[in-house]
Write a structure and sequence with these properties.
This protein has 13 helices and 10 strands. The chain is 45% helix and 16% strand. The radius of gyration is 19 Å and the shape is globular. It is an alpha/beta fold and 285 residues long. Bound molecules: zinc ion.
């Protein structure tokens, strides 16, 4: 085989690797926590999203000032074509991560914050919150945000295990719950599927999900699940620590790689359209 033949053969072989998804992205899990403010001012945040093709993001932060500053950067949002979808976070500081469900002042803060709203409009959801021990899902302060979300049509973003999904949904069966990481502990796929079947209002966000990819490509098990529930998943960055900000564009490029293993319409739903639809966003310009 001559050089050209070899080149063509290798091109054909590489075509077996699907092209990355190149449509708009919706980042369903973005934090703008206090420690990111100096290193990544809002202009830098919007520039990173723009370079990544992220056209909308759920913003939530510890404390909520971060979300309000992203929501208030109207010129930057307009110039980069990024829509900020604000969520109220339950944390004023790190101690709140493990104590919020037993602290009534957190619930009052959530009510105050919802009443205040943001420069980008009303809050659209509550979270992300964490429950490291699922039995805390039955505490009164965990119960009430679920019921509040149900009453007000807010989404909830919760970092919990599969047992806590059952507990939270029992408090408010009509609430729309986005399961952060779709179980960061790696709940087995048949269990994830059973929960999706049981709760039509349950959705999954896919950052950090164990088993989702193998060598950067979508695993067969997850491809089958995403194909069976194409309307129930979204992608996210989870910028919970500073290295996630440095890696933001890489994280989004990685998501585009495995999304490319799906049929184009399913990739677009999971990459953009599902989350956009949950908040009634228009198609990006
Ligand atoms: Zn998070």
């Amino acid at each position: 085989m001559n050089y050209l033949g070899a080149l063509l053969t290798s091109l054909v072989a590489s075509a077996a690797w699907a092209a990355p998804y190149d449509g708009p992205l919706f980042d369903m899990h973005l934090h703008y926590n206090v420690e990111a403010f100096d290193a990544h001012p809002t202009a830098d945040v919007f520039a990173r999203l723009q370079r990544s093709g992220v056209r909308a993001a759920v913003a939530n932060s510890r404390p909520n000032e971060g979300t309000r500053s992203l929501a208030g950067a109207r010129d930057e949002a307009g110039a980069t074509g990024v829509t900020v979808v604000p969520f109220v976070r339950l944390y004023r500081n790190r101690a709140d991560y493990t104590g919020w469900f037993a602290d009534d002042s957190i619930y009052r803060m959530v009510l105050d914050e919802l009443a205040r709203g943001t420069p980008a409009g009303p809050y659209r959801g509550i979270g992300e919150f964490h429950l490291y021990d699922s039995t805390n899902a039955d505490g009164p302060v965990a119960r009430r945000p679920m019921q509040l979300a149900e009453q007000r049509g807010l989404l909830v973003l919760a970092h919990v295990d599969d047992d806590a999904v059952d507990r939270l949904m029992a408090h408010a069966p009509g609430a729309r719950l986005v399961w952060a990481h779709t179980g960061i502990g790696g709940a087995p796929v048949p269990r994830v599927k059973a929960l999706l079947d049981r709760y039509p209002q349950l959705m999954g966000e896919l950052s950090y999900r164990p088993g989702l990819t193998e060598g950067g490509r979508l695993s067969a098990e997850w491809k089958a699940l995403l194909m069976e529930y194409p309307g129930r998943f979204a992608i996210g960055s989870d910028t919970w620590v500073m290295p996630r900000w440095s890696a933001y564009e890489t994280l989004m490029r990685d998501a585009r790689e495995w999304l490319g293993d799906l049929p184009p319409d399913v990739a677009r739903r999971i990459g953009w359209a599902n989350a956009a639809g949950w908040f009634g966003l228009a198609e990006p310009r």
